[in-house]
What we know:
This protein folds into 2 domains: 3-131 and 246-252, no CATH class; 135-242, no CATH class. Helix 3 crosses helix 4. It is an alpha+beta fold. It has helices at residues 3-10, 14-21, 26-54, 69-75, 111-115, 135-142, 205-215; strands at 61-65, 77-78, 80-85, 99-108, 121-134, 147-152, 159-168, 171-184, 187-197, 217-220, 229-235, 239-252.
Amino acid sequence: MDLAQNVDAFFHDEVGRAFREEGLTPGTLVEHYVVQLLASYAANQIASAVQSDAHLAHRPKVVVKGFPFLTQVVSGHYSHIEVTATDVFEHGATNGGAVLHLDFAGVQISASKALSNAVKTVPVKQVTGSVAIPFAELQAAAGISGVTITGAAPGVTNGIRATAVVTVGPTTTTVLLTGTVTFVGNSLVAKPTAIAMANGKPVPAAVRASALAHAAFSVRLPGLPPGVEITGLSVAPTDVEVALGATTLVLTR
């Protein structure tokens, strides 16, 4: 029994009668099935292209949005596709780690090529997105021994607080740091701007110099397809929130 016969039989049983009462016909059901199938293939092509281009260890989740849905699928032009990837630093975070969100606008995927798995390139008109990086993930990516990011620094633009264990000669000291996070290209750059002793005493010059040099770091943001760039960032109470963007992007498989 072929697809059309299956659908016809379905519409003549009790469940099928319920569907007819809702205004669904065999034709609309087949249409819905085909549209969903094509959208699924398109999402699969996007997932493969993003994973390949961004060198992601895990396959991202892709959701096709936009309306009218049928027009998008038939024309191969999708107005809005959402991509989500977790644990982009590949730290094995059980809570999702750093989470990347990308919104693709104006995506071109031929229906025939999607069905035959022959998509090699995926043109995208515009990309916006974000990545939320928990402080623990940023600290692990920095890989600086003895430095612990403890939270945001109130009253300091894009400010963070940290502790650092500094050894100068035979003496080990814990200091409190305030710093800022900025970006250069697609790297996050943290620089300490103020220091105090945890015990409230004056900071020795040698400890100050060592701590300020030791605690500065730069971390390249992984998980971005070529052409997607950092456009801004802000420090939230528990993480660093990075804004992303791109125009006239072409994903490749």
